[in-house]
Amino acid sequence: LIVTDEGCKFKNADSDKLLNLSSLSSGERNFIHLLFQLCSCKSEYRIYLIDLPERDLHEHQQVQFMDALKDITKDVNSVTIMASHSWIFIEEVGHEGIRILHDPDKVYVK
């Protein structure tokens, strides 16, 4: 993120090109918005509730999101609860970090 006289711009990681927020895709704008929300929390203990963060994100952006989430939460007392259909998030978190919550009275198709 680079703040200029014309407003905020974003630097493309693959080049030196500066991009306006309006030129980004909806997925990229959602990605940036969510990361700003995650970073803005100042409390000592944090609970993050994230619903379908993969929506509008390409696979490589999903990996970038998980890397950023791990970086944001590594030095704080936090719990992240995330609903997702993405195999990429499962792979990135690892099976030891996943808890599947369900109603035992309901029948689920496997």
Integer average pLDDT? 78
- Please count the beta strands (DSSP E, at least 2 residues each): 5
Secondary-structure element series: EEEHEHEH
The strands making up the biggest β-sheet line up spatially as: 1-2-3
Distance between the termini: 43 Å
Structural class: alpha+beta
* Assembly status: single chain
Shape: globular
- The rounded Rg comes to 17 Å
The largest sheet is:
3 strands, antiparallel
What helical percentage do the residues reach? 25-40%
SS summary, helix count: 3
Low-pLDDT windows of residues: none
Strand content: 15-25%
Provide a descriptive summary of the structure in words.
The chain is α+β, with helices and mostly antiparallel strands and 110 residues long. The protein contains three helices and five strands. The chain has helices at residues 26-40, 59-73, 87-93, and strands at residues 2-4, 7-11, 18-20, 45-51, 77-83. Strands 1-2-3 form a three-stranded antiparallel β-sheet, with no helix packed on it.
